[in-house]
Amino acid sequence: MEKEYLDLFAFQAKWNRNKEAIYDCDADVRYTYHDLDERSDRLARILVGRFGLKKGDRVAFCARNSIAHYDMFYAACKTGIIITTYNHMLKPPEILSLMDQERPSVLFYDTILEDRVEGWSSLPYLKALVTLHGHAVKDGVWDYDALTEPDASPLPPVELDPEDILMYIHTGGSTGLPKASTMSYRAVISNCISEIISFGLSYRDVGHQFLPLFHTGGWNVINLPLLFCGGKMVIERAPDPSRVLRIIGQERITVGVAVPTVYSVLAEHPDFAAADFSSVRWLIVGAAPVRQNTLEKYLARGVKMCNSYGMTEVGPNNLSLPIDFVSVEDLRARWNSVGKPMGLNEIQIVSDNGAPVAPGGDGELCFRGPMLFSGYLGQEEETKSAWHDGWMHTGDIARQDPDGHLYVVGRKKNMIIVGGENVFPVEIEECITRFEGVREACVYGMPDERWGEVPHALVVPKDGSLSREELSSYLRENLSGAKRPREIHFVDSIPRGSVGKVDYQQVRALAQKLKEDHHE
Length: 520
Fold this sequence. Notes:
Layout lengths: L2 H4 L4 H5 L4 E5 L4 E4 H18 L7 E5 L4 H13 L2 E4 L6 H11 L3 E4 L18 E4 L9 E3 L21 E6 L9 E5 H15 L6 E4 L6 H5 L2 H6 L3 E4 L5 H10 L4 E4 L1 H8 L14 E4 L6 H9 L4 E5 L9 E2 L7 H6 L6 E2 L4 E5 L12 E6 L11 H7 E2 L2 E10 L5 E6 L4 E3 L2 E3 L1 H9 L4 E11 L3 E10 L6 H11 L8 E4 L13 H16 L1
Parallel strand pairs: 1-11, 3-4, 3-5, 4-8, 5-6, 6-7, 10-11, 10-12, 12-13, 13-14, 25-26
Antiparallel strand pairs: 1-2, 8-9, 14-15, 15-16, 17-18, 18-20, 19-20, 20-21, 22-23, 24-25
Helix pairs in contact: 3-4
């Protein structure tokens, strides 16, 4: 790969400079590709000239979605500086642990973090704290909007290699501190190409940024691929359902990605029935499968929707139904499938001994291809354990039908072994949520003296009328004995992380509390 290949993110500023690239809903400001080019030039000069940063140095963000994130992304491509983004909902000690590992030279933050950064300016690796959104500035803190360039001279040239690291993106794991996945230019650009050729993205498309930019889904699913091919992104700091439904029609949104909870909340909003979806080509579901009854509400409005599969370390958008080319009937028939491999992805499903599993059998899903990450930062053993002979092992158990469609049936670590029989929570959850009075469910394993382990379930009712007896009767008719939950607890919500994935650490803590309360 030549240097010109890595300059393709700057291509749109040269090719179609006056095309609108980003609409910031909160500020009600529109930015062209020329604006992004100029803004990132300015930021790059500040970082290099004022703060003395160079290729390989890190810059961190701990903030809600903002135009400054995009300024920094393009500035990173021009300087070789690495961008890393932290979940602003983490506790200060957790953020500091990540910072101590990654040692950013500059931290950008917004009002949501203002009361937590006291004293951080004394960290030995930090050269500057920069506040966003124009709030009060304290000693040792710079205001982003007030920062001035040291001069307007051309940026010094930087030699980039496809294997140079562009971003650290943290895993969305449900236990422990997130790991920093190192993403090269090769991986980020390959993911853009994969989405463009698989989803048919073009400069005509408009995406809506539902997901936070501290997560791979926020950066790399639709967002960067659309900017890569000259499309437009609509961004919000904290999406409000009423405004989202209005913006879809106002900005003529064509494509989107969100987690099931977002789509469920939108579908249940009073404005959903009157919202203008006429511009929408399709909506993709990530992080977890969408419920069938939620899917039907969108299909009834003429909006195509399907589940997809991705993983920070391998893309992150790797599997999907070819949504542009399938009918609504196909989407209904395969509503719980995560589709087929997208462009540049190679897959295999293997048994515990590494042997390929025949279609119809269950095994671990593995990926290979140019979209793979470059390893976990500072965690060589973790990296080695994830890779085997060039294949990235996901830990997800999948099944492939004779037509090549894939179904994720569970997590290897979450599999429940009942008297020697493998039981996958996803299958039980799908059965529970088909019962009319259920909003959502989470199944987990609990120790059992006789069977070793048995399934239990947390269930969120749609309303207070859900009958435990009727639900239990339904499950007896539809699930074999090993798969039936031994205990069912009604709860107000399923514990989830910031991007919608079930937090099993919290689930087990809640389950233990419910069990103790039950026996008091």
